[in-house]
Design brief:
The protein is mainly α. It has one domain. About 70% of the residues lie in helices and about 5% in strands. Strands 1-2 form a two-stranded antiparallel ribbon. Strand 1 and strand 2 form a beta hairpin. Helix 1 packs across helix 13, helix 2 runs antiparallel to helix 6 and helix 5 packs antiparallel against helix 6.
Length: about 350
């Protein structure tokens, strides 16, 4: 391997790491607030990419039907829950929250598909259209079992991923899609070495969005509420923070990140209805490096995953995913050695 090849692989690794960084932040956010390992995160990103591809081919995005279906399920679930609790007076608010609000991005996407808007508005419509997906899934699937164990929630997340894959096949079909580059042109970093504008855009987007993520958590009331819920759910409830509301906010923020990831990766790889699973798994490796609680360590883990994947693809394209996922073994072993172990005292019971 020459230095030129190593530099090219390093740039590709940083671009991949930028994507895994954003996905890892979304996974850590949801887990810290709700204890849910949100496996379908990558599916939402894939749906955003396929939505943008539908816009570019002058087709009506099938995502509209998916969002409307989930909105109907969420509305029925919420109204049924209110009726069982004898809170019928709150049904109009539920209609607004779960019936009207999810329809608004659908109307925007429908208008964008009919009128042939510019590419920038198509990107915005694609991202906004997938934002309701995670909160709607949370209301239908996760909120009724919010107090279940982490293992049960993980099993439900895996089942939900396969359900979304089936819905993706139903709505989008088996064909793959790739969109036009969001940024054209080349940038010369050194003599004889250039980088595409799309790679620069991916890395710059990860840096900017990570900075905004930090500012939201540090400077806004909503961000502080999310942090309080992540630290202590019971304590947050005692000071007037509703964990259910912060959970929906976390799902919405993560869904927004997934939508941005989808439009960023759509020009560089062919996306299928089930392509998001591998993205979510590699982001999960980065989140595990961060212990599912540390955002800075998750960012470092994401860059490491991207670089390892890039160099592993040079040595063996068939084994690159195996090498990436093998990172979990030393990380988990190291955490096991460094984490204090509390030994349980064995009590002798007199017969």
């Amino acid at each position: 391997m020459t230095w030129d090849v190593a530099l090219i692989l390093g740039i590709d690794g940083l671009a991949n790491g930028a994507v895994y960084l954003l996905a890892g932040l979304g996974l850590v956010l949801i887990f810290s607030v709700t204890r849910v390992v949100f496996v379908p995160f990558g599916d939402v990103a894939a749906f955003a990419a396929l939505t943008l591809a539908a816009f570019e081919t002058n087709r009506m995005p099938p995502t509209i039907g998916l969002v409307l279906t989930l909105a109907a399920l969420a509305l029925v679930t919420e109204v049924g829950s209110l009726l069982r609790r004898g809170e019928g007076a709150r049904i109009p608010k539920a209609l607004l929250m779960w019936g009207v609000l999810p329809v608004l991005p659908c109307l925007l996407a429908w208008g964008a598909a009919r009128s042939g808007v510019p590419a920038s508005l198509q990107i915005i419509a694609s991202v906004l259209l997938v934002v309701p997906i995670s909160p709607l899934l949370a209301r239908v699937v996760y909120q009724p079992i919010a107090d279940a164990s982490v293992l049960v929630l993980l099993i439900v997340s895996l089942a939900l991923h396969f359900l979304l894959s089936g819905l993706g096949l139903l709505f989008f079909g088996p064909e793959g899609s790739r969109t036009a580059p969001l940024a054209s042109g080349m940038f010369e970093l050194a003599e004889g070495f250039t980088v595409s504008g799309q790679v620069v855009l991916m890395v710059a987007s990860a840096i900017v969005l990570s900075g905004l993520f930090f500012l939201v958590f540090e400077r806004t009331v909503a961000g502080k509420a999310l942090r309080a819920t992540a630290v202590n759910r019971v304590g947050a409830r005692l000071v007037g923070i509703r964990p259910a509301r912060t959970a929906m906010l976390a799902y919405g923020c993560a869904s927004l990140l997934a939508g941005l990831i989808g439009v960023l990766i759509a020009p560089v790889t062919t996306m299928y209805y089930d392509s998001g699973f591998i993205i979510g798994l590699k982001a999960f490796v980065a989140a595990i490096i961060g212990g599912l609680v540390s955002y800075p360590m998750t960012a470092i883990g994401a860059i490491a995953v991207g670089l390892v994947e890039s160099f592993a693809s040079f040595w063996s394209g068939a084994l690159k995913d195996v090498i990436v996922f093998s990172l979990l073994i030393p990380v988990l072993m190291l955490r096991s050695f460094l984490t204090p172990q509390a030994e349980e005292d064995e009590e002798e019971v007199d017969q």
